[in-house]
Amino acid sequence: QPQKIYLIPAEGGNPQEIHGGGQSEGSPSFSPDGKFLAFWSFPVGGSGSVAKTRTVQIMELDSGKVTQLKDSEGYGLPRWSPDGRYISALNTDGFRLETYDKKSQRWERLTDLPAEFPTWSHDGKYLYFITRLPDKVAVNRVRISDHKVEQVLDLKGFHQEWGDNGPWFGLASDDSLIFLRAAGTSDIYALDWEAP
Question: Exposed (0-12), middle (13-18) or buried (19+): which is 144, by Cβ within 10 Å?
């Protein structure tokens, strides 16, 4: 079954599938003005690997029109920059972090380090990401203006909790790092609950 994206009204209501068809979709990201939605898509049951057939799609929410982002074959996990100029994505050829500049309509690689969970700083000057190497796991950030990479945190000895999509992390409103930490084994509880 294809994986699909749905929109639900903020005031409640029925979920609406954003895009028909037999393709799978994921990683939705709203543009800062709320008028567009970026997401990855790939055909279900097609030939070739998912990584190679994945593309970045842009939907205009008012009209429902969907267009493929230029030269986005093999890209996933799109994220809009806070100013709306860039869309970051992971090139699935080694999970390299790149940005698409909407003004120049070109992709640009930011670093050759493998990246996981890229997240924009709130001022749009940096992209934070996890790099996982055989001998080192760390949070890094790359400056958009000159591609300088800085290590922010060495994760040696830190046990991240793994969710459905891996060891997630994010940024608070002041760009402090947020992690899911594995603190112990899972417990199951039984609770008696009465509806009001």
Answer: buried
In this predicted model, what pLDDT tens digit does every residue of 4-60 receive, in sequence order? Answer: 999 998 898 999 998 877 789 999 999 999 999 999 998 876 555 555 688 999 999
3-state secondary structure 51-111: HHHCEEEEEECCCCCEEECCCCCCEEEEEECCCCCEEEEEECCCCEEEEEECCCCEEEEEE
Task: Tell me the residue length of the chain.
Answer: 196
d(CA 172, CA 175): 5
Give the containing element (helix H, strand E) for 50: helix 50-53
Q: Cα dihedral sign for 114, 173, 159, 163?
A: negative
Q: What is the pTM of this model?
A: 0.84
